[in-house]
Hints:
Elements: H1 2-27, H2 31-46, E1 50-51, H3 52-63, H4 69-81, E2 85-88, E3 91-94, H5 99-103, H6 112-130, H7 141-159, H8 163-171, E4 182-187, E5 190-194, E6 202-206, H9 208-216, E7 222-223, H10 231-242, H11 248-261, E8 266-267, E9 271-278, E10 281-287, E11 293-300, E12 314-319, H12 327-330
Antiparallel strand pairs: 1-3, 2-3, 4-5, 4-7, 5-6, 6-8, 9-10, 9-12, 10-11
Helix pairs in contact: 1-2, 1-6, 2-3, 2-4, 7-8, 8-10, 10-11
Amino acid sequence: MxxxxxxxxxxxxxxxxxxxxxxxxxxxxxxxLGLYLFIYYWYAQHHEAVDFKRLWRxxxxxxxxxxxxxxxxxxxxxxxxxxxxxxRNNRIYPKVKDLEAVIDLFDFKRSRAGKRGALKRLRRTLRxxxxxxxxxxxxxxxxxxxxxxxxxxxxxxxxxGKKWEALDLIAHTLLPLRENGVLWLWRKxxxxxxxxxxxxxxxxxxxxxxxxxxxxxxFEEGIMVDHVKGHKYVKDIIHKLFSKGNLSxxxxxxxxxxxxxxxxxxxxxNYIIEFFWRNNMLKLVLMDYYGNTLAIYEKEWQGSPPEPxxxxxxxxxxxxxxxxxxxxxxxxxxxx
Length: 336
């Protein structure tokens, strides 16, 4: 048994050394990238930020000689200016954890063809080794096409001043909302929504990449129910885009389920949530399972509010971090 444990530890150590060697190799083509990858690696491996001294020692491996600490501080300042890291109490956190989005910010001292090959190997190496539990699958071309199409249409709607129409389209495609679902809250990388047809009725998903996309499109975190104002307009878009008749809506939200299958989205956390509607003001209170308040959100709203407040002034329930799928109905068309 003792030998088996020692062997298991040795295997893990060899894997760590292999990852670090890979990071050093790419860091010697671009030192900023090497720093960022080590910050990313340390956070993924240990679930904590790396301290400056440890980062400086690793940078010496990239440089292949001992450098002045100010050399590393200058590189960190450049990474901070790009919005890629956050420095707090002499510890460095990765702010953007999507390698696909980050890598293209760096140039390599090599040919363009060599750069493409290097990036491909790097992405695959780090994604597989840092997250071995997530099987890396090629995203099917039809799925990629519909994601690009949705984002293209949404961007066009925003340029036309149809902000809530754009959000409603995204809510029913890149999130798993049914036709009568309401996206109530966006908090960090989580989206909480209500669906009257399902029990439990309030659910939560995590989709960090979508949160970044929404920020780029000009949206802000908080109560998101304004999207229902654009729902009538979006109905025609959904039917034209998918052309499946009464199955157009299931097909639209199947985009989210497919993205989740390919590890781009995930289950959310469980919460307790309380909805209030008083004096033309919407209020959400988000709590953990012990009843501790995590956040309070408020928003002015004229007229009757969306479900579950259409016929009541308050509603308290559990938020479940798992999506509802009724396999007999939906299994046939949730395929790409």
